[in-house]
């Protein structure tokens, strides 16, 4: 099998062979055409400089064409953030460093402060136009939807894990996947809390048991197991059972009791670790941009985690296909409630590859996003005990201390919804996203006194809801503060309702998150259950691993970065570096 790196070199071979062709062919060609004898040193110099010259020529030609096209439309080019080194490689290096060690949007913020809310970070001579403007995001996601795609570059990087699933497809292929999965998210199904309730019980008993024994718990790890188990049961009726596997003890625990390693626990941890690693590899590719295959010359870095994922998923899919085969085609309107997404999908396709792609896409969509939001809600509870107490009051008033919450309870709990929204405003699970434009286009200028902006065809267009959600001109002077009431008081009218594209944790338009309502239900359900069981939460900072502690220098910066006591980390989705170690107080 050809590795991604070798495939990349083969694809680039026509250009890469220019020096060779010049070196070997120039002198004989000149002789044959009766031209002058070319000195060897000239041939060598030409061969050596041909590639850089070719690249410079192409870049200059493209920039000249873009300028002409912009002029013709009465527009201007997007301001470029210039790096100090050739191809702005220093910016790329800085971004990679920031991703690993910085706070989300470090580096990008400087560009935006300097040049405005739309900046071209022209890394490796490729137009990479970042916008934080609601009006541009609206064009991308909604009003000019057909001109913006995930694009071949993005899809190629994700393909070895996500295949052609709903996340990783465009056009008719995407429509096919979306139509296939949408019916599954109907109101009855997403309000059926049986699965959630069972797994929430496991979370609570584990928290209680560890708390009684005096240990703190990594809430992110625990809740990731909850979202994985719920999603796997919901999606393919086959629980990963990660909550039954060994849950880690804090690193500062004096003598944690030994945990028996069962085959099931090991299998669950292997699957979860492989899934996490595969997602990490994908985010590394996305970060490197179009040159990522060069870092995978000797092998596909997703191959190993995908082997472990397949070991778990393939038998599940085979068993569902077998069951379907034995039962014959289910009639529409049958006992739909009992069917998982996988069973539903089998009514549309029997292609195991399509089934696996879809399931993996859904797991990606459903696990880390809700895990992250719930983790940050609990973090905010530890930082704002008054908010925690107020949500708890609401829980007790609407649901009481032990009853199982219903869909109607959740719908009516306005403050809980405001807390979830405020958490997703400050720490959205998908803080950065990206599209590519098919045709050249023009965006309105953020400064009405300036000409509109010309966007060349095929530009990489990252948009950041993380940055947009913190803009003071859109949210008011307290934009960086955690204040759930902004979704309930005058600020709702003054800011949010003026522009419904400025709050987009779930995206918008035709590709809006399919699981939005399910996610609100799942997260609300879990919080209600937690607040019925526990009255408060505290951080156990002693238990944080060094990589999970915000560096000292953050305290000397501005905004939220200076006050946070956890460390947000960025991959495809956001998470908490080193986890969130907490202690709970029994209610
Ligand atoms: C807090 C929880 C969640 C957040 C913040 C969230 C956010 C998002 C965002 C921003 C997108 C757009 C991605 C893109 O265009 O590249 C998306 C898409 C999607 N989400 Fe969610 N999501 C959440 C939970 C879920 C859950 C629980 C599920 C299902 C189990 C789900 C299913 C999907 C699907 C299928 C898509 C793809 C839609 C498409 O491309 O047509 N999401 N989500």
TrEMBL record:
<keyword id="KW-0472">Membrane</keyword>
<keyword id="KW-0349">Heme</keyword>
<dbReference type="GO" id="GO:0005506">
    <property type="term" value="F:iron ion binding"/>
</dbReference>
<dbReference type="InterPro" id="IPR001128">
    <property type="entry name" value="Cyt_P450"/>
</dbReference>
<feature type="transmembrane region" description="Helical">
    <location>
        <begin position="41"/>
        <end position="61"/>
    </location>
</feature>
<dbReference type="InterPro" id="IPR017972">
    <property type="entry name" value="Cyt_P450_CS"/>
</dbReference>
<dbReference type="GO" id="GO:0004497">
    <property type="term" value="F:monooxygenase activity"/>
</dbReference>
<dbReference type="Pfam" id="PF00067">
    <property type="entry name" value="p450"/>
</dbReference>
<feature type="binding site" description="axial binding residue">
    <location>
        <position position="513"/>
    </location>
    <ligand>
        <name>heme</name>
    </ligand>
</feature>
<keyword id="KW-0479">Metal-binding</keyword>
<dbReference type="GO" id="GO:0016705">
    <property type="term" value="F:oxidoreductase activity, acting on paired donors, with incorporation or reduction of molecular oxygen"/>
</dbReference>
<keyword id="KW-0560">Oxidoreductase</keyword>
<keyword id="KW-0812">Transmembrane</keyword>
<comment type="similarity">
    <text>Belongs to the cytochrome P450 family.</text>
</comment>
<keyword id="KW-1133">Transmembrane helix</keyword>
<dbReference type="InterPro" id="IPR036396">
    <property type="entry name" value="Cyt_P450_sf"/>
</dbReference>
<dbReference type="GO" id="GO:0020037">
    <property type="term" value="F:heme binding"/>
</dbReference>
<dbReference type="InterPro" id="IPR047146">
    <property type="entry name" value="Cyt_P450_E_CYP52_fungi"/>
</dbReference>
<protein>
    <submittedName>
        <fullName>Cytochrome P450 monooxygenase pc-1</fullName>
    </submittedName>
</protein>
<keyword id="KW-0503">Monooxygenase</keyword>
<dbReference type="InterPro" id="IPR002401">
    <property type="entry name" value="Cyt_P450_E_grp-I"/>
</dbReference>
<keyword id="KW-0408">Iron</keyword>
